[in-house]
Amino acid sequence: MAFAGRRNRKDPLNPVLEEYGETGMIPVSGSGLMRKSIILFLVVVLGTALFFSCMHNPAPFDEAKWRRQVDAQSVEQLYAPHFNDGRYFNPWAPMEHGGFWRLVKWKMSSKAHYSEEEKNHRPKFIPELKARIQGMPEGDFIAWIGHSTFLLRIGGDYWITDPIFSERAFLPRRITPPAITGEELKALAPSLNVLISHNHYDHLDEESVRSLPRASRFYVPLGLGNHVASLHEGAVQELDWWREIDLGGGNKLVCLPAQHWSRRFGQGFNETLWAGFLLITPEISVYYGADSGYFIGYREIGRRYPNIHYALLSTTAYHPRWFMHYAHKSIPEALDAFHDLGARYFIPTQWGTFPLGDEPPGYPALDLMRTIQERKLDPSRFLVLDIGEIRPLRGARE
């Protein structure tokens, strides 16, 4: 597959399936007549939206007002019941519902201008990841596979987050290739621990799950167990927010709240939970925040679990802010979340792989580096990885 040089303008259906799902109105399947029908429908809708794009210019998003709403969230609500009448929800901040026409409003809106550098920026691709890992039989590390998929080795155990190696996340096409595949992983990690944060197509990819090593063990939020078990014979454990699992040897996995939502074909709106995870070992702790808007939970997680070494935080699909602010963080918010967590290192996730929001896929990395400079933050604490890059993990004694 040739990924290099693919551009958004060649694929008019690039608005991510997730953002169609922001409305909670369009279930989709991965192939066949249903997929073709949905694509035709979206062509008509998006074509109409583009035709009228000059007619709608929403007012600027009020960031100060939104921050006041976040600051007013109750910590107690992070522990409140979050399932009712067959659906999960975020009790600290009810989700805004605009229906399908809110999506159309987004597509009819005028777009921000991006420079050529912002449009064309990409992470570098470092090949031969499998061979390079085989050449380092010892040591803890993290490697970026692409999007929200990271491979970690800690204490000899392998972990992977939201694996997706496919060319598409249903509709959006990759602009950069994955650094490794499920087949290659079988030669590296016959026993693999898999974290799946929620059911959106760019985080739960069925073909990628099927390709994982036979002895994989899956940790998923409530409601996702049966679906994952239908794709892979490995053991599956469902977790609720704040549940801790003793993995033995001083290792612990914690399922944590996130501010997001769920939907995919065969699973209705918010019928399964969404989550982040914290992996705690005697030497290293890694927080995987998955997909989430900015919320008071980061402060509480940092309070309850001090001394986090690495925070993997999402940095994508935040333009336009009026549409994206609930479920996705802006770069300033991602930096605030990093501060709230009290983590030592920040690793940005989800950028540079799939076109999601209005911003170009590589834009978040440039935005991040500019904001770090503007805030006069220590750049050594921010690890912007290239695809296929291996970074040693430094723990409590280093």
How are the strands of the biggest sheet laid out side by side?
8-7-6-5-4-3-15
Number of helices: 13
The mean pLDDT is 88
Strand content: 15-25%
Q: Profile the largest sheet.
A: 7 strands, mixed
Low-confidence stretches: 1-30
C-alpha Rg (nearest Å)? 20 Å
Amino- and carboxy-terminal Cα gap = 41 Å
Q: How many strand units? A: 15
The H-and-E topology, N to C, reads as HHHEEHHHEEEHEHEHEEEEEHEHHEHE
Relative helix content: 25-40%
CATH architecture of the domain at 119-392: 4-Layer Sandwich
Please name the CATH topology of the domain at 119-392: Metallo-beta-lactamase, Chain A
Instruction: Describe the global form.
Output: globular
State the name of the first-level CATH class of the domain at 119-392: Alpha Beta
CATH H-level superfamily title of the domain at 119-392? Ribonuclease Z/Hydroxyacylglutathione hydrolase-like
InterPro entries: Metallo-B-lactamas (IPR001279), RibonucZ/Hydroxyglut_hydro (IPR036866)
Protein name: Outer membrane protein
Pfam family, one: Lactamase_B_2
Domain Metallo-beta-lactamase: 161-349
